[in-house]
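Quick illustration for those who missed Monday's session on complexes.
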Amino acid sequence: MTDNLQRVYQQACDHARQSAILAAVQAALEWDERTMLPPPAAEYRAEQIALVSGLVHKQWVEPRFGDWLAELAASPLAEDPYSDSGATIRELRRQRDRAVKLPQSLVEAIARAAVLGQNAWQEARRKADFQQFRPFLENMLALKRQQAEAIGYAQSPYDALLDDYEPAALSAEVTQVLAALRNELAPLVAEIAQSGRRPDVSILARRYAVGAQEQFGRAAAARIGFDFNRGRLDPTTHPFCTTLGPHDCRITTRYNERHFNESFFGILHEAGHGIYEQGLRVDQYGLPLGQAVSLGVHESQSRLWENLVGRSLPFWEHLYLEAQRQFPEALGDVALRDFYFAANDVRPSLVRVEADEATYNLHIVIRFELEQALLLGDLSVGDLPGAWNEAYRKYLSIDPTDDAVGVLQDVHWSAGLIGYFPTYALGNLCAAQLFAKADEELGGLKALIAAGQFLPLRQWLGEKIHSQGQRYPAAELIRRVTGQPLSHRPLIAYLRAKFEPLYGL
Ligand code: ZN
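Prediction with zinc ion bound:
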């Protein structure tokens, strides 16, 4: 290896680190905007964020960075695509190529359309009036089609957008795995609907003091492994997780005094994202080996802790006495089994973010099908509300009462996040597949969880997923860790094993 080549590699890595530092500055501004910012300051904050995001883009497209990467890609350092240097060069090139293909004018047009679109969406949702939002969505779709063309694709323009969130995934493959999932979910949901058993969900709508919820949620997040020495939990309106540096992961939640689930399972969810971020390699901060591999895998980590651990019976066998002590008035007279059943209530609902584990993925299938049809021009924006309601009748046997709880419920399309929804379902599939493998390798997760021992599972995930960063593309990583390509089967097996006894199927 020549000294010169090593020097070029070092320069390229330093350059990438600089853009990661700039991106973290942007993330700090955004975290502050969503948790602390006085409302009148929003306009200037938008300018600050736009300025920094422009600097990040500039850093990525700088010609000499491209020259270094081209030289490295043709060198022995890139020979093994899964070695430290090989994976780093491969991923930096991939990200830079995407950035270079997008003209600055298009990036800015999408950013502007996203701000205007979100404003229009908020107003339209408040009035449950889709027509008001329609021109903004038409404009955004036109821009996203331009984006797809600029980036390029082999099969479908949708792939070019999906690639932003789930690198290398193809919509044809995602369609296949989600169709298989839907075909097995639909009968399960129908069987549950026909069973006579229903939990008493009113126990979760008793009074849960916000202070006690915060204390209890914080303790649970710490117990599963979120490191509060290197992170924070703060309240917000729309919960999220963000990372401001290798020792600074921020999670957020919202509290509802009359609903236990919202903050508690929300905190476990965001803590799952946070544990992934905190498990990334510190020495690779800002480089591909120190970054999460895809949104789908990220979501698998949040869903795993939220659902497969947090909504399991063993988890509550471990924690229920503490919950009763923390909320004596709400839970003092409630048996563990009743609480567990209420926390796992399955019923078709209109709103995705409130959906249970069994019906959730049907909400995603609907969005995935509709956004592809919109992008490809098979469905006009004017026909979208009708198509949305039709899909809810078909997949969930439920009729949206108005657009606010129908087609206008999610922010994503207004913000230009098209191709994002499938990552939620991929996360659920991946969570179940990883959990099954961990269960096999660790010899019985149920007993560990019931004993409050979360460290073995966290270490297993840390070794297999977190510390790998982007060494392997997501699909390859899952195949290597679990020995199988991503499949709907582990999730269906998990859901059946859980809900059949609960609902007496
Ligand atoms: Zn999430």
